[in-house]
Design goal:
single chain; about 230 residues; alpha/beta; 7 strands; about 30% helix; binds S-adenosylmethionine
């Protein structure tokens, strides 16, 4: 299931996490936050804002309907956001509203060939790597690294089966029968902080922290481009 072929099609409707910056979450975000065990506003304030400057050039993987993209845009008034997604997200993100400061690229693979080398100060994703298996995550991290400026940071949420076990599969809304199925038949493939850190290091990143500890069900890795 979370093969690249499944992922290319699955989110055609445009996944939405609501307004991640509002102090009071809307109903959708409220429900997601209960499932994940954390506040999206807190995730953004601690996991993205410290790495953004007004003129940052940011790359985001898998924006969907752009919940996190809009929060990023608010924090880079003189910068630029480039998004890559299997879907054509322009219908939801409306790049025409941002005076050439947003570029939305529809991709078909994990090559990152559509973006120039050494161009980004920050690389962000949320709700994306948790659906990609470790082989694809390794490919993503390896191919994204040359696109970053030296010393640039990256922050990515990913699935962590060890935290999920602690938090609870039912509470985390991941079917427990996935435990008996291979990764290519489930939409929440196996991963944990040790495997993720090893994958990132093998791809050439400095692992600053395998998990920022911002949500209870999943992990959020902080990386730096050497
Ligand atoms: C669950 S949605 C999350 C959307 C948004 N980030 C959020 O949190 O609201 C995952 C999005 O990532 C995209 N996606 C998943 N894996 C991808 C990959 N390897 N390359 C490009 N886009 C990907 C999907 O098409 C989808 O739009």
């Amino acid at each position: 299931m979370p093969t690249i072929n499944w992922l290319r099609k699955e989110f055609y409707y445009g996944y939405d996490s609501g307004d991640v910056l509002s102090v009071i979450p809307n109903w959708r975000r409220f429900n997601e936050e209960r499932i994940i065990g954390g506040s999206y506003r807190n995730v953004f304030l601690k996991g993205a804002v410290p790495y953004l400057k007004p003129d940052s050039k940011v790359m985001e993987l898998g924006p969907g309907r752009g919940s996190w993209s809009r929060a990023i845009m608010q924090n880079i008034p003189n910068g630029k956001l480039t998004t890559l997604d299997f879907q054509d997200v322009r219908q939801w993100l409306h790049p025409e509203r941002y005076n050439m400061r947003m570029d939305n690229i529809q991709v078909t693979d994990n090559s990152f060939s559509a973006v120039p080398d050494h161009s980004f100060d920050f690389f962000w994703s949320f709700g994306v790597l948790c659906h990609n298996n470790l082989t694809d995550i390794k490919e993503i991290l390896k191919n994204a690294l040359p696109k970053m400026k030296k010393g640039a940071y990256a922050v990515h949420m990913y699935g962590d089966w060890e935290k999920l076990e602690q938090w609870g599969w039912k509470k985390g809304k991941v079917p427990a029968e996935f435990k008996n199925k291979p990764d290519d038949e489930i939409w929440w493939p196996r991963n944990n902080s040790k495997e993720m850190a090893a994958a990132a290091a093998a791809a050439g990143w400095d692992v600053v922290s395998p998990d920022l500890g911002l949500v209870k069900r999943d992990s959020i890795i902080l990386l730096r481009a050497k």
